[in-house]
Structure formats: C-alpha cells, structure tokens
Amino acid sequence: GAGVSQSPRYKVAKRGQDVALRCDPISGHVSLFWYQQALGQGPEFLTYFQNEAQLDKSGLPSDRFFAERPEGSVSTLKIQRTQQEDSAVYLCATSTGPEQFFGPGTRLTVL
Amino acid sequence: EDQVTQSPEALRLQEGESSSLNCSYTVSGLRGLFWYRQDPGKGPEFLFTLYSAGEEKEKERLKATLTKKESFLHITAPKPEDSATYLCAVQPWVDSNYQLIWGAGTKLIIKP
Question: What is the average per-residue pLDDT within A55-63?
C-alpha cells in the first residue's frame, strides 16, 4: 500500500481483556517501530524490529505487552489483561532510513 | 539522560503573523533531529531532518534550523491550514537502533 496502515482504528476493551493491534508497513520497509502516545504528549518508544528480529524491547512497560513480526512484514502488538493505564494511542512507524513514516494509530480505551 | 523540551506548549497567531517554535535537546550524540506535524486523530507526518549545527531546511512557509543545543521551526505568514501540533524528536547515536526521543509538542493555532 501507499502508507502504513493500522487496525483497528479504535478499540474499546474491558479491564482484564486481551487485545491485539495490527500494523501493515510500507512495502519493503525493513525497520518497524511501535510507540505509545498519551493525550497531549509526544510518542514514547515501545519496541523496534529490523525485519523479523526484535532488536529492542526496552520501552515495553510490562510483561503484559508483547510484539511480534514473524515474517518481517506485518506486526502485531498484543496487550494481555488490559489495565486502565494502557489507554492511549498506539502508533506504528516504518522506515528504510532515518525518517520514520507513521500510520494513523489505534486508539485504545480500557474501561 | 537524553531529553527533548518544546516551547511554548501552545501558540495562537493571527493569519499572516510569523513566529518560531523552539525545541531544546540534550543527547549524548546526535544522529539526527526531526520535525513532524500531527493533526488530530492522525499519526505524525514527517517534515524535516537536520543532521548538523548550522543546517537549515525549508518547505513552503516552514523553515527549520539547528544549533548544538536547540532547533527552531520558523513559520512565515502562516495560514489557518498550518494549525496542528508540531513535534520535535532526536535520534541518538546507538548502534543498531534508530528509536526517536520526542518532545511533547507545540500546539499551533492560526486564526483567520
């Protein structure tokens, strides 16, 4: 596709539910990043993939967060046993060089 | 600790009133400094990359400049469609990792 796509765009979960957020990168983009953005704040780094290898997961806030990119293309961010503090916009970005290109994000609301 | 601070938090201008947004940073080694624009409900949209002090980049009514401690985004004769949140990010020199460290953004409102 022409740009990074993310689905779903909006997700409402009850506290304790598991959720899965999907990112479809720009074709050929080797690097893929996940960020978390709270209202009125800049994005915060969660994790980074180069092809299928997860090279950095230092930003994942807890072991309830898990990301994968098994074939080096589509990536999924999974959050287990969601908590209210997980409510945020989750952004995916991909790149082939220094500049990162972002999808529209998934807004997660945990009730 | 690598850190990015943007000011002001919000800026209201009349159409045609030029101004500047500031991005101050501390980083152990700078690979690049990036400016993005973010509209409500959308992901950040790439504007500029700056790599070394003294560098300048321009695009339409926007010009970005870089020193060793800060970057400015100058907006000349803005129009209402320039209203958005402008985000600054730095990319530190870390082997095999290209993560960005972000400021909180400046919300720019241009009144017609």
Answer: 94
